[in-house]
Amino acid sequence: MLLVRTIELLGAHVTDGITALGNFVLFLTTAAAYVVLPPYKPRLLIRQVRTIGADSLFLVGLIGLFTGMVLGLQGYNTLRRFGSEGALGTVVALVLVRELGPVLAALMVTARAGSAMAAELGSMQATEQIDALSVMAINPVQYLVSPRVLAGVIAFPLLTSIFDLIGIWGGWAVGVGLMGAPSGPFFNGIAQNMSSHDIATGLYKALVFGLVVMWVCCYKGYHAARMATGVSRATTEAVVLSSVLILVWDYFMTSILL
Amino acid sequence: MSDSGDDKSGAAIAVRGLRRSFGQQQVLNGVELDCPRGQITTIVGPSGCGKTVLLKHLNLLLRPDAGQILVDGVDVTRVGSRALDAVREKFGMLFQGGALFDSMTVFENVAFPLVEKTRLRRPEIAERVHEMLAQVGLEGMDRKYPSELSGGMQKRAALARALIRRPKILMLDEPTTGLDPTRTSAIHELVRHTQQQFELTAVMVSHDVPQVFEYSDRVAFMHLGRIDLAGTVSEVMKADNENFKRFLAGRAAGEDERPPSQVLAAPGR
Questions:
Q1: How distant is the Cα of A28 from the closest Cα of chain B, in angstroms?
Q2: pTM for the full model?
Q3: Percent of chain B, pLDDT > 90?
Q4: Is B253 exposed, middle or buried (0-12, 13-18, 19+ CB in 10 A)?
Q5: Which residue of B lies nearest to A131 if distances are taken between CA atoms?
Q6: Is the pLDDT of residue B246 over 70?
Q7: Hey, which of A141, B28, B147, B240 has its CA 20 to 30 A from B116?
Q8: Quick check: B113 and A128 CB within 8 A?
Q9: Is residue B219 domain-resident?
């Protein structure tokens, strides 16, 4: 009897898990389909690009600056031990463009825009605003989710590029300006050693992170339980899952794109 | 079927053997209900009896496990997603909390269905929205955001949005939840007035028993996932139904008040 009960419970967990995963994937495919299908709503897209992109600019710039500055500091001190301060520019730029830019920008935007998005959709669900859209014969996924996912895919690479540029400048300011590394080799090294493949790798990552973060945050918000705690739980889960997925995906994408 | 739209005597909505369960719980257990054209049918019953779930089936937010919902004689539980839009055009829905979009002003909220689903021009939309806002007593409130309105005003704005596309059927989910007695009767009167003016068929879920009977044509009492008793208000009041009597007596004693957390918790999820 106990054995049957255990197997039942195990089976229920497995089917629940598979159903949830299926819903999760279905959610994205539906959202993606409505990106392509008319009617198009450029106004909604532009508003979301502003929310995710333009409104995150200051934060991303600030974090980019300090990341670059610390790279300049650490890089200079490490490279000096080998007498290769001239490689500082290459190190800072490659680390930022290939790795830290996409990852840190994505994490910051998750914290800022992703959490807000999950909370917004969650409270719309709780107050029946999503049902209201359905009743008005407006597909809520098309109206709410598709523009956000597309906006994420557009905004993340742009934010990452800005993060990279400001970061490189920050590395230069500290490494060259403060610590006294040679300025010429700093930029020369970047020009010589950075390939378009490096830049593309970083932008691909940013693009995928944009998709993943918006997918997770919209899904969690959209499916929030209709309780006061439902919204907060959805927000927490959205941020945690997005952050984990960013770092896990980062490894796999790096190993594929390397 | 084609002339059923002109049939003034027939039921605008007829529910036949509707069943729906969530997990182990059988929430709708063979619901039979007729909502005659041009009348207000009010569904009452103890909380958890499935009223809201039933309403969510009527406006097609949920699909039943079995049974039929006939709107003007057409079974809407089996229509595809394209035809669904056409069916939904007949409906206006007033949600429990109003469900106004809080990122939009009152004007934008009321104009929303017209902007999204019609090809009307801006001036025409503005004219209709202002007309409708005057109708529900919200002149001059068009630039306010829902958060700046009182509960009663939010309900009025939500009613205006529900009516803006001139639906034939209006559904109301506990339209007076969270309102004081004065506002409650004001909303009831407004619902009655607009229903008569636009000759709407209205289906209302309410907990304002017995006050709501004054504003209803028909009452359906729901108990344990079925309609236990239905008829005109006077028929129902005279009926010899133990469950209904107990429900009315419990209401009078203030029993069965829902805790606030349950208002948000949707039984349909």
A1: 19
A2: 0.83
A3: 2
A4: exposed
A5: B61
A6: yes
A7: B147
A8: no
A9: yes
Average pLDDT over residues B146-154: 87
Q: Considering just the CA atoms, what is the radius of gyration of chain A in Å? A: 22
Q: Which of residues 37-96 of B touch A (CB under 8 A)?
A: 56, 59, 61, 84-85, 88-89, 91, 93, 95-96
Q: For residue range B69-102, what is the model confidence (pLDDT) as tens digits? A: 888 888 888 887 778 888 888 888 998 888 889 8
Low-confidence ranges of chain A (pLDDT < 70): none
For residue B72, which of B39, B33, B32, B37 has the smallest C-alpha distance?
Answer: B37
* Measured CA angle at B124 (ends B122, B126), to 5 deg: 70
Q: What is the CATH number of the domain that holds B22?
A: 3.40.50.300
Give the residue from B84, B116, B166, B169 with the most A CB atoms within 10 Å of its CB, the best one to mutate. B116
Domains in chain A: boundaries? 1-32, 43-257
- Residue B189 within any structural domain of the chain: no
Closest C-alpha to B134, from B194, B93, B74: B194
pLDDT-wise least confident of A123-137, A159-173, B36-50, B249-263: B249-263
What's the pLDDT tens digit per position in A190-233? Answer: 888 888 999 999 999 999 999 999 999 999 999 988 887 889 99
pLDDT for position B252: 62
Does the residue B140 lie in any domain?
Answer: no
Q: Which of B25, B26, B31 is nearest to B43 (CA)?
A: B31
B34 part of a folded domain: yes
Rounded Cα distance, A134 and A125, in Å: 12
Q: Vertex B108, ends B106 and B111: CA angle to 5°? A: 105
ipTM for this prediction: 0.82
- Contacts of residues A253-256 at CB distance under 8 Å and 24 or more positions apart, as own/partner, are A253/A204, A253/A205, A253/A208, A254/A98, A254/A99, A254/A201, A254/A205
Domain tally, chain B = 1
Residue numbers of the domain that contains B47: 1-84+209-269
Q: Is the peptide bond before A39 cis (omega within 30 degrees of 0)?
A: yes
Mean pLDDT of B188-195: 86
Minimum distance, in Å, between the CA of residue B237 and any CA atom of chain A: 33
